[in-house]
Amino acid sequence: MRHIVLLGSTGSIGTQTLDVLRHQPGCACVEALAAGGHRLDLLEQQTREFHPQLVAVYEETAARDLSIRLKDMDVRVVSGMEGLLGAVALESADMVVTAMVGMIGLEPTVEAIRRHKTIALANKETLVCAGALIMQMAREEGVQILPVDSEHSAIFQCLDGRGPETVRRILLTASGGPFRGWTWEQLKDVRPEQALKHPNWSMGAKITIDSATMMNKGLEMIEAKWLFDVRPEQIQVVVHPQSIVHSAVEFTNGSVIAQMGVPDMRLPIQEALEYPKRGALTVEPLDLFAKSPLTFEKPDEDVFRSIRLAREALIRGGLYPAVFNAANEKAVAAFLAGSIGFTDIFHRVEAALERYDAVAHPQTYTLEDVLEIGRSL
Ligand code: NAD
Ligand code: MG
Fold it and tell me: Could you give the CA distance from residue 103 to residue 185 in angstroms, rounded to a whole number?
């Protein structure tokens, strides 16, 4: 049985992780929960249901409020970055599920690797902005990183332990989001409430916007490069609107292995929690007859420039992916706040990559360099 620390327990991935544990109570117990303070009722209810020994709430006032509410329970409530780092360092935990959104997940993930915890990685922004550092640390510390992102879970399952020398291409599938087939002109008028409606997946606000711009696929190309040690030109994005094939690997000899399943994040979450075992069914079984036909298209990179921008950031290397990620995080927040338009997200990311002075920052970097990019954009 796993002993997990769940970072981001009140979000989409966090709540679905706890739902997997409700169905499969034998696969893991919860040592700590961590979240932001804006859904305190839910965090209180989760604490009462799963009995962690520690709860970390980022904001201090919310943490104080929660500790008063939980007076009758034997649980420690902590706050701030220190609280998050304390949660991942718990002796009794052997796995950290990183389900926080954004670069805030970087330091806790680094600390979890230092403490030799297996990482179930949902927080893709971490790998995008500091992939070289994270992967090197994980190798040195002998820590396994199990992908939770559905595409990367699929690729991990297709590879089944085979190395990058066996791979010709990664076929990274994408639903195409709610604006598949739209023109650039049409995208200009998209409002937040339209972009927040995804056809296949129910997710947090940030990743839902990332899916609408296909920045999510750009982030996932970079995530795939680091997880599977492939070159940028080996990653082919394939638009597959039904979201049944979660990705595929084309091997050097032309054999292609794809992983399929219903579009339900509880499946890749369970896969990571139970790895290498395969437990009982939590999600609906896949009915291929009901889902047919399955279709595949090339992405329109002239409209969804996100894919091209991500590829460029990846080829330039160094801190370019961190700039790509940080500029996107800021632009998505501005779009959701109503202060910029939908296509401005692409402009902002492109401008940040152009402005970035690569001469001052060579290919190798430190954690502090990455955090500075986050602060400076
Ligand atoms: P979400 O917005 O639904 O939830 C985010 C969680 O992070 C919440 O619990 C929130 O309280 C917590 N959080 C935010 N700031 C925090 C802080 N400063 N300190 C502590 N906790 C904080 O997001 P989500 O959709 O669950 O996505 C989480 C991550 O998983 C993202 O990196 C996303 O890209 C990735 N992911 C999500 C999905 C999905 O289906 N939702 C799929 C693949 C990957
Ligand atoms: Mg994904």
Answer: 31
